[in-house]
Amino acid sequence: MFAGSKPVVVVGSINTDLVAHADRLPLKGETITGNSFHTFQGGKGANQAVAAAKLGAKAIMVGKVGSDSFGAESIRQLTASGVDCTHIAVEPCDSGIAVITVGTGGQNTIVVIPGANAAVTPAFIEANRDVIKTAGMVLAQLEIPMESVLRLGQICHEEDVPLMLDPAPARELPGELLSLCSWITPNETEAQFYARGTADDAHSKSSSAVAAALLKTGTHGVVLKLGELGAYIEQTGGSAFQIPSFKVAAVDSTAAGDTFNGAFAAALSAGRDVEWSGRFGSAAAAISVTRMGAQASMPKADEVMALLSGQSDVKL
Ligand code: RIB
């Protein structure tokens, strides 16, 4: 479906996820007995690259792993998922790790140890300018140093390639950064963090008011990822769309947002319109929460199209 489109280039983190499943998340200071433990491939950057690649888009990963066995396994599995790994460098240090707890219903808590992701420097981003400028869409997140994300934004602006920033995990941003983005894609919590300080309390705002507050920061488009409530999409001077959610039995919500971003970017890069791309991303994310793991849970294009075909108002 995406053959012949310009590549999705992802600049970001590569992690190994160490995941404990339990009946519920532990309270502060509490020890509980879990049900299972799994090692999955993760990292917000690598997840978004795999989401796009599994759907059939050309996906190129720019990032770093450590010189340990986790790093070698990450490259092996990213390659197996169809991601171009020729722009991943190996640093003489530990790879990125995420320690994740998943409770019943799919909610999670995540602690990330950056490892080699902290060595994704502005100079490394600059050294990859030639591949970045080939992108139909560049995807970034906030699990690499902030100055590197800013340098990426400046390069995208200079090379006239669109940048989609997933501002996660929520952190203070340099003022210039959002004006360099074509899209920002916060979830509910992140949207409240970035919209704070505007006239009203973000908690009490409608999606359109939160999006309007974020659009004032200079970004050209906002996607609010609302979990079970779907997504809200608005562009400066453009249309706004409420994307409905899909009713599914959630097992693990890890990387649902990453799945949305990879799918949304793949569809936009292939020339699909914003509303269709949002629905495609929402359907891909819905499928991902029915399965365990980050990259392991992501669907192929035919699965997403099958889910979309059940919605009578979607033109396939
Ligand atoms: O967005 C989910 C991801 O966040 C996990 O795969 C984990 O690695 C952390 O980066």
Describe it for me?
- By secondary structure, this protein is an alpha/beta fold.
- It has one domain: UDP-N-acetylmuramoyl-L-alanine:D-glutamate ligase.
- The chain has ten helices and 13 strands.
- The strands form three sheets. A six-stranded parallel beta sheet has the order 5-4-1-8-9-10, sandwiched between helices. A four-stranded mixed beta sheet has the order 3-2-6-7. A three-stranded antiparallel beta sheet has the order 11-12-13, sandwiched between helices.
- Helix 6 packs across helix 7, helix 8 runs antiparallel to helix 9 and helix 9 packs across helix 10.
- The longest helix is centred in the C-terminal third of the chain and has 15 residues.
- The radius of gyration is 18 Å and the shape is globular.
- It starts with 7 loop residues before the first strand and ends in an 8-residue tail after the last helix.
- The chain binds alpha-D-ribofuranose (RIB).
- The site of alpha-D-ribofuranose has 15 residues, from strand 2, helix 1 and strand 7.
